[in-house]
Write a structure and sequence with these properties.
With 484 residues, this protein is α/β, with parallel strands linked by helices. Helix content is 45%, strand content 12%. It has 17 helices and nine strands. Helix 4 (87-103) packs across helix 7 and helix 14 (311-322) runs parallel beside helix 15 (343-355). It comes from Bradyrhizobium betae.
């Protein structure tokens, strides 16, 4: 039933001039879904309070509650079409009254980890793209048919929402940056082995896939106490996200998975000077797929000891600094990071090998990320002790991955099983850190078990490296020129 409702809402959005892609559909579905969820949550809290003979104070004022403007009902529970706003009246109310009212919550909230603050953040970032009040009325009535009352309903909704995110990842444009394939995330979590009581962090959280999957992994542990459940709700998952749409989707995704007031901040992680990160700010586990290929401005680069315009390399420095001693990380990065000869790549590999135990590198096949067109590796490391041995695993699913043939959990089963004991096999091998060249720190993936292993590099990667080296040369010549 829920799935059909979402399809019907997409059909309504398809006719809307302001909505052109899966990204727009997900954005508009998300804010309506959030308000319906909030209404169900408030009514459930009111009933709980009544059972305890207490009075519940609603977060949302009566005029702005779902039941007042989105889905007014008659006494018999049927829809009250006479009271329901529609057409231009509905659009005017949403744009001029409802959104400004909800935006103000940010300034009134007691702290950033409250539901009130999330309300303010979401509606401060999102825009109503509906232009027809008749279309919006149809969407609201469809959404009103959904319920968040039981855990089963939330679970079903979370699956449908995940499917929407997957479609968004396949939709081209920049949708893919919000979506990391869930089988890869689950394998990374199994290797990182988070435990209840540990703080888990993703500073580039996108749609919060890593945090949601880590929650599901920990929630599935047997015999959880009430204290454990409270710890999972409030003190375990932390994220940061720069982009407005991704932030909204992350909040909604975590709520649907069962985390009521997600600890996700809407901020540019890289604007933070990593020297300001103190012990109290550090985490036990980092799970992330930071954006790559971005070009960060010089003032942002000033926040990092290794200066580079490559976004992913700045995130890697941030993540290393954000880990506690002994903390564990699993991070997706472009495979060219392992062999690029520019100064930043070499310096970062040196830092990883000397300051962390880079124990595992998982080499992913092309097509893992839909529409991204780049090959990736996953770095698994622990902070605090130098690398002695690196265990490599080259994933070969035996088929070409693509939209109709995506990565699945079975593909990664062997990797997870062999990694537990760092076992060598046809697809895995161990490299002694002493054998790594200390001038280049090159970590290229070359499977010694297969003779024809030397792959041709992607021409785009070669050009990108040439451009980086040219820029570096120009910078050196310019500084020499200034000395003369």
């Amino acid at each position: 039933m829920f799935e059909q409702t979402f399809k019907n809402i997409d059909d309504v959005l398809w006719k809307e001039a302001g909505c052109a892609t899966e990204l727009d559909y997900t954005e508009q579905t998300s804010w309506i879904l959030f308000l319906k969820y909030l209404d169900d949550l408030e009514r459930a809290n009111e009933q709980k309070a009544e059972l305890q003979s207490k009075k519940y104070t609603y977060i949302i004022d009566k005029k702005y509650r779902w039941s007042a403007w989105a889905a007014p009902k008659k006494r018999d529970g049927t829809f009250d079409h006479d009271k329901a706003l529609t057409g231009d009246d509905l659009i005017d109310f949403v744009n001029r009254d409802l959104f400004p009212y909800l935006q103000n919550f940010r300034t009134r909230a007691e702290g950033s980890n409250t539901v009130e603050y999330k309300v303010g953040e979401i509606f401060g970032e999102i825009k109503n793209r509906f232009q027809s009040g008749y279309s919006l009325r149809d969407a609201l009535e469809l959404m009103d048919g959904l319920s968040f009352r039981s855990q089963d309903q939330k679970h079903e909704l979370s699956h449908i929402y995940e499917a929407k995110l997957k479609n968004m990842g396949n939709a081209g444009r920049n949708g893919g940056e919000y979506y990391t394939p869930r089988p890869l995330i689950r394998a990374m979590i199994k290797v990182a082995r988070p435990e209840i009581g540990q703080r888990i962090y993703d500073g580039a959280c996108g749609s919060a896939g890593f945090l949601c999957e880590a929650y599901d992994y920990l929630r599935a542990k047997p015999d959880l106490s009430t204290k454990d459940l409270k710890t999972l709700q409030e003190k375990t998952f932390f994220g940061k996200e720069k982009k407005s749409l991704a932030y909204v989707i992350a909040i909604m995704n975590m709520i649907l998975h069962g985390i009521e007031a997600p600890n996700v901040l809407h901020t540019n992680t890289l604007a933070e000077n990593i020297n300001d990160i103190q012990e109290k700010d550090r985490f036990d586990i980092v799970l992330a797929n930071p954006p790559f290929g971005g070009k960060e401005r010089p003032e942002v680069q000033q926040n990092f000891p290794i200066k580079t315009g490559e976004t992913a390399f700045l995130f890697l420095q941030h993540f290393i600094k954000s880990l506690k001693a002994g903390g564990r990380a699993a991070i997706v990065i472009k495979n060219t990071f392992l062999s690029n000869s520019d100064n930043a790549s070499v310096a970062l590999r040196k830092e990883l090998l000397e300051g962390c135990n880079l124990h595992t590198i998982l080499d992913m096949p092309g097509g893992t990320f839909q529409g991204a067109g780049v090959k990736t590796v996953v770095l698994f490391f622990e902070k605090g002790a130098p690398t002695r041995k690196v265990w490599f695993y080259k994933l070969d699913p035996g088929r070409n991955l693509g939209k109709t043939n995506p990565l699945n959990d079975e593909d990664l089963k062997e990797f997870v099983a062999l990694q537990a004991k760092f076992k060598d096999s046809e697809n895995s091998w161990t490299v002694d850190a002493k054998s790594i060249d200390t001038t280049t720190f090159d970590l290229s993936v070359k499977n010694p078990n297969k003779a024809d292993e030397d792959e041709l590099r992607d021409p785009k990667d070669i050009i990108a490296e040439m451009v980086a080296l040219d820029a570096e040369s120009a910078e050196i010549l310019a500084s020499i020129g200034r000395m003369l």
